[in-house]
Amino acid sequence: MAQINQFTITEAVKESFQTEEGSRFKFLLETFIDHLHDYTREVNMTHEEWMGMLMFLYDCGKISTPERHEFILLSDVVGLSALVDMINTRGGATEGSNLGPFYLDDAPELELGGDLARGRDGTTLLVHGIVRDSLGNPLPGAIVDTWQADGSGTYPIQEHGQDKYDLRGKITADGEGRYYYTTVLPKPYTVPYDGPVGRLLRAGNRHAWRAAHLHFIVRAEKMRAITTELFFENTEYIDNDAVFGVRKSLIAKLEPVKKSEEFPFALEKRPDAKCRFDFVLAPEG
Amino acid sequence: MAQINQFTITEAVKESFQTEEGSRFKFLLETFIDHLHDYTREVNMTHEEWMGMLMFLYDCGKISTPERHEFILLSDVVGLSALVDMINTRGGATEGSNLGPFYLDDAPELELGGDLARGRDGTTLLVHGIVRDSLGNPLPGAIVDTWQADGSGTYPIQEHGQDKYDLRGKITADGEGRYYYTTVLPKPYTVPYDGPVGRLLRAGNRHAWRAAHLHFIVRAEKMRAITTELFFENTEYIDNDAVFGVRKSLIAKLEPVKKSEEFPFALEKRPDAKCRFDFVLAPEG
After folding, report:
1. A258 plus A159 within the same structural domain
2. What does the pLDDT look like over A51-89, one tens digit per residue?
3. Per the structure, how many domains does chain A have?
4. Which of A126, A281, B139, B215 is geometrically suited to a Cys-Cys bond with A223, CB 3.0 to 4.6 A?
């Protein structure tokens, strides 16, 4: 047999996988093995550290359920989720940001100008803007699918006895690509920190707070859908969001609504504040 | 706020952890984040690949139990366990190899010359040698803690109704550092491949077989203990062990025992074959 040592083992492991030459799987796997082995050699990993790392993954697995995916949370707090969002943002399109764990793909429809908050306490916020393509043309009929936490930082889906479809809605843009609705201004909240990822945050003296945000998936025919979040200027944690979701281009200005102010569209509920955000979609493919 | 993008996010994530300057934890964490982010950028990871990777970890967590640690198995098949063993082998000492999942630290004592097989079917093998320090001095009283699969490739601990302490024993070396005992020649076996790691092996057209081996932990006063495995020349899978446990220096020659052959020590059972292996321990610290 050929001797393997701490340097030649990397090629030996790669060669042990009989993967299709030039395939994406081969590339993903081999590059992963290179980095894993390089990391191990660079830090001169001890057996105790190795076992600590594996037990951390084991603990992440134990606390995970279909509703509590600790590995996604881990990916979030080490900036991996944000990095993947950044890599996959198309030039000219609105920047992507975290999908998060609370999306449901069958949210009810919300009429243009409707109130998503349905009587919830908090600041009534008008959210409006235009869905456009990267040349500036409006995209009539675009679907703005939104979900969010309430005025105390909780998603209805997290609370026993609440309707999980609350604070979720799909809005269809009008003939000029405009969307507008009112909702309650969300509050910041913490990511779950009662598990292994919480231990990691504490070990690194990090907080678990997310800056307040609205979630969006925006779709239009023949355009690449975008998953993103909208944040608000000068709000808490905007500079140190626990999952690195904030981008400068995703921060909207919160402005008070004057008593005399009139809007070029009809609203179900009079807002206290407003913010404008235009979504830009790139073509498919 | 400072804008972060796919290049600056790596430093931002590292800075979010408030870890002690110069600490081992800081070094392990920052080097990990560097490699994770570099990998993600190098392969231009898509959202589908990202989710596939996280679901793979989720599945590893779901199948894991205290007796079935899928993350250790994953570490084994991508050569990480072997690499950590190699990195931690001390110069001049016997090379380390996989601990594996079946070790029990409270194995019964086995007298020098005793038979570990206790009447099991198979080839009776004499295992003998000297435990020495790296200068060649014998280490009297060294403890040779061994465990192994049987003549059909099964560990008693895996089989319902069998004594989990079978085929395990702690042997104390004599005044000249010699150890000797008989046992049954083990057979190759497969690592568990009914879980996500099995899926990975199949995707890479890899088999799940381990070359036949004996496990050892050897300890002596003031010496660094070694965890290793002993393999046999010209046996199956010696060139493509599924967990990369084989090293040239850990392969012993299997030799037939002649009818007339006499041994310089007393044995409980007459062997059919023999192999010699000396263990070399480095000083502690």
Report:
1. yes
2. 999 999 999 999 999 878 999 999 999 999 999 999 999
3. 2
4. A281
